[in-house]
Design a protein that fits this description.
Helices cover 49% and strands 0% of the residues. With 65 residues, the chain is an all-alpha fold. The longest helix is centred in the first third of the chain and has 32 residues.
């Protein structure tokens, strides 16, 4: 059972990494085109493990850490 848990965690981490790499590529493409990042938000294709899928746009709210 421990192996299954570790394999599940590894698969989730790989999916997150893939999603982040896609987002980075999209942002780099936006920067190459010269568009400001505020005008071209890139919604994630799928939710991270701890997030609910996006239901719609709710404005430009950015959380400060």
């Amino acid at each position: 059972m421990e192996r299954a848990v570790v394999e599940g965690a590894l698969e989730a981490a790989r999916k997150d990494n893939s999603r982040l790499q896609s987002e980075v590529a999209a942002l780099r493409s936006t920067l190459r085109r010269g568009a400001p990042l505020d005008d071209a938000p890139v919604p994630p294709a799928e939710a991270a493990n701890d997030e609910a899928p996006p239901k719609g746009r709710k404005g430009k709210h950015v959380e400060a850490s």
